[in-house]
Amino acid sequence: MTSGSMTISMQENDTVLILGATSSMAQAIARALAKKSYSLVLCGRDEHELELLSGDLKTRYGTSCRMVVCDILETKFSADSVIAQAGDFQHMLIAIGEMASTNADDPDNIRRVMHVNYTIPAQLASSASLHMAQHGGGTLAIISSVAGDRGRQSNYIYASAKAALSTFASGLRNRYSKLGVHVLTIKPGFVDTPMTWGMKSPLIASREYVANKIVAAMEKQKNVVYVPWFWKWIMLIILHIPEGIFKKLKL
């Protein structure tokens, strides 16, 4: 394993493994990486969508793309197997997430939200961190959410899963920074994706803007980044609302 506290910076032609590659946000990030000459391993459950994305990236940017087809909802899903199938890579982005139903009284919904937004990403992050530490280090970027900073009645199941993921990423960062692996926690606000379709808000950012900021944060080895930047201050305000007042708000 790599010793010391220095991690390996991202360099042109390095290979980045993207988990959840067919989501609209992940596709935007894949394009941003391809523009900068990174090679990609695209992992997702829809083989047809992976083929379309891979073909588009190769045609537009001449980047090297490999594919790994896997379904995180399969009973026999194995994070270690996915990492092994991905082959050689230096860096990884976890872009797996799902809002699902907001029905907080449905135990099946709670299980699914936790499974997709925390359990599986945490397993993948753990397996990838160990893999990268054993192969010279690298950067692991994990997409969490600003929602995880404080539970609100409108989406506290999803928010609690993201809070757990952010805490898990913090622990990985503390553990693996000494082994050459840098862990970045990404906390997006509202982004123009299917999760926000139908919403009308001046705070919704474009996928392209967010993707470019995420790639820049990976290259600069940031620890935690809010995207867009102003969400850091919005959430700071929300965090400091006294509980007696907060529980009366409809957020």
List its traits.
251 residues, alpha/beta, Rossmann fold, 7-stranded parallel β-sheet, globular
Q: How would you explain this protein's 3D organization?
A:
This protein has 251 residues and is α/β, with parallel strands linked by helices. It has one domain: NAD(P)-binding Rossmann-like Domain (Rossmann fold, 3-Layer(aba) Sandwich), CATH 3.40.50. Helix content is 44%, strand content 15%. It has 8 helices and 7 strands, in the order βαβαβαβαβαβαβαα. The chain has a 7-stranded parallel beta sheet with strand order 3-2-1-4-5-6-7, sandwiched between helices. Helix 2 links the parallel strand 2 (39-44) and strand 3 (65-69). Helix 1 (24-35) crosses helix 6 (207-219) and helix 3 crosses helix 4 (107-134). The longest helix is centred in the middle third of the chain and has 28 residues, at 107-134. Residues 1-5 have low confidence and may be disordered.
Provide the CATH topology.
Answer: Rossmann fold
Q: Going across the major beta sheet, what is the strand order?
A: 3-2-1-4-5-6-7
Name the assembly state.
single chain
- The helical percent reads 40-55%
**CA radius of gyration:** 18 Å
Structural domain tally: 1
CATH class: Alpha Beta
Tally of individual helices: 8
- What structural class do helix, strand and pairing data support? alpha/beta
Mean pLDDT: 92
* Model regions low in confidence, pLDDT < 50 over at least 5 residues: 1-5
Q: Approximately how much beta-strand content do the residues carry? A: 15-25%
List the helices and strands in order: EHEHEHEHEHEHEHH
Largest sheet: 7 strands, parallel
Shape: globular
What distance lies between the first and last C-alpha atoms, to the nearest angstrom? Answer: 46 Å
Can you identify the CATH superfamily? NAD(P)-binding Rossmann-like Domain
